[in-house]
């Protein structure tokens, strides 16, 4: 198992590129199952989760390969297998996104209940209720979801849940409804940029979707879809992570092709803290005041503050002058990074879904353990500013969502060495 050894105290400066969005790529790759024509996807990051998804698609009859320009090609050659096996699905939650496309195209699907990061309970009941409303029969047996329907029927579907709309549920229902007979209206749909990207991709395949990016999506079903050549949007979570990297090291980074329009809530909180964010054409320059102001923030569905950047902002606020309040409303148990940050000298106190962050003068390097993808990023950020050496174990989590993060950060001044755990 790999680990990171980080020497803290370096000030980051320079240009840093963004990879394509992992969270957009995975549902779009699943939607390639909706046609037997070739799909070409550009700007797909080379990540552990992407490689797992490629294996899953191959098990479902697709040929998947990258060309000399690093574009990802997907072509379904055999549609006979309708079962997504446990060993392939258990590794990540986004595997559930093959359910809708398989049901719509192959009239049946059997998918193991998904895995992913240990950040709290994330049921798929909204996915299943939506598919059932479209006319599918649903059976749960031995850890698998089995669905069947000769032809899905367009209808009205409400996707609101106790923690807001569901991103992957919206993706699943959209991908199923494009081949349904008649019109489907999704109310309380997720509005995330990744949902918009999926809608744009499906339209490029010949779907008729309007309203994606709003809480009301309308889909006019078509008989078939075709292949296309499509470019994935930049990763807004990686962009936000690099913004915090510039701020926490008192550095200055130019983030290339930064999607600031997808990060308004994050930029608002960063500017309040004392981070300078200056768009410059397609790029964004991020620097920081020497003294940071405390802030309150609450995670919310898009366009609110994203839960996937909560841990990174917590690391930054550990060094603010005063007390900050962070409330997690998407995944209330997503606080496994608290214990590790406290090992580095932070003063964090959890009270239900809220954390009180008491700012300290410095963090101190220590051996710590990554618990999930975004917590891993927060610990890397903390390690870069901490006094002395930080060792982060189990960095396979970060490889699921950040493409060559240590290479990108080292290129702008960080000191991160990847090595094997002893």
What's a concise summary of this model?
The protein is an alpha+beta fold. The chain has two domains: 205 residues, Enolpyruvate transferase domain (UDP-n-acetylglucosamine1-carboxyvinyl-transferase, Chain, Alpha-beta prism); 210 residues, UDP-n-acetylglucosamine1-carboxyvinyl-transferase, Chain (Alpha-beta prism).
CATH C-level of the largest domain: Alpha Beta
Structural class: alpha+beta
Shape: globular
How many domains make up the coordinates?
Answer: 2
List the helices and strands and how they pair.
Elements: E1 2-7, E2 13-16, H1 22-31, E3 39-42, H2 48-59, E4 62-66, E5 72-76, E6 83-84, H3 86-89, H4 99-106, E7 108-112, H5 125-133, E8 137-141, E9 144-148, E10 156-158, E11 160-161, E12 164-165, H6 167-177, E13 183-187, H7 193-204, E14 208-210, E15 216-220, E16 228-231, H8 236-248, E17 252-255, H9 264-273, E18 275-280, E19 283-288, E20 296-298, H10 310-317, E21 323-327, H11 337-343, E22 347-351, E23 354-358, E24 367-369, H12 373-385, E25 389-393, H13 396-399, H14 405-410, E26 416-420
Parallel strand pairs: 2-17, 3-16, 6-7, 10-13, 20-21, 24-25
Antiparallel strand pairs: 1-25, 1-26, 3-5, 4-5, 7-9, 8-9, 11-12, 13-15, 14-15, 17-19, 18-19, 21-23, 22-23
């Amino acid at each position: 198992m790999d680990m990171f050894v980080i020497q803290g105290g370096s000030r980051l400066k320079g240009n840093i590129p963004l990879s394509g969005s992992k969270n957009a790529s995975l549902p779009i790759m699943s939607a390639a199952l909706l046609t037997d024509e070739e799909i070409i996807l550009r700007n797909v990051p080379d990540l552990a989760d992407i490689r797992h998804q490629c294996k899953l698609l191959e098990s479902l009859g697709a040929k998947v390969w990258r060309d000399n320009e690093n574009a990802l090609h997907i072509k379904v050659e055999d549609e006979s297998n309708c079962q997504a096996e446990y060993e392939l699905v258990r590794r990540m939650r986004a595997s559930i996104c093959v359910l809708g496309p398989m049901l719509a195209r192959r009239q049946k699907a059997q998918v193991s209940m998904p895995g992913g990061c240990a950040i709290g309970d994330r049921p798929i009941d909204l996915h299943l209720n939506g598919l059932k409303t479209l006319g599918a029969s649903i059976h749960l047996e031995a850890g698998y979801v089995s669905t069947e329907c000769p032809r899905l029927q367009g209808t009205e579907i409400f996707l609101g849940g106790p923690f807001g709309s569901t991103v992957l549920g919206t993706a699943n229902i959209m991908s199923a409804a494009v081949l349904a007979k008649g019109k489907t209206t999704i109310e309380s749909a997720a509005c995330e940029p990744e949902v918009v990207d999926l809608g744009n991709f499906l339209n490029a395949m010949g779907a008729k979707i309007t309203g994606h990016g709003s809480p009301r999506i309308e889909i006019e079903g078509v008989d078939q879809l075709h292949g296309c050549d499509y470019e994935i949007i930049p990763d807004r979570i990686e962009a936000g992570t690099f913004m915090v990297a510039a701020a926490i090291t008192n550095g200055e980074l130019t983030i290339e092709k930064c999607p600031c329009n997808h990060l308004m809530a994050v930029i608002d909180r960063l500017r309040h803290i004392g981070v300078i964010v200056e768009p410059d054409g397609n790029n964004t320059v991020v620097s920081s005041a020497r003294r940071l102001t405390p802030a309150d923030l609450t995670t919310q569905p898009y366009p609110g503050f994203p839960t996937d950047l909560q841990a990174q902002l917590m690391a930054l606020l550990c060094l603010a002058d005063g007390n900050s309040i962070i409330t997690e409303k998407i995944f209330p148990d997503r606080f496994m990074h608290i214990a590790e940050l406290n090992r580095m000298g932070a003063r964090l106190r959890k009270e239900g879904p809220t954390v009180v962050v008491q700012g300290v003068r410095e963090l101190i390097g220590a051996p710590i353990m990554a618990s999930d993808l975004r917590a891993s990023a927060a610990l890397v950020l903390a390690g870069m500013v901490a006094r002395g050496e930080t060792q982060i174990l189990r960095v396979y989590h970060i490889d699921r969502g950040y493409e060559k993060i240590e290479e990108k950060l080292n290129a702008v001044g960080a000191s991160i060495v990847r090595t094997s755990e002893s």
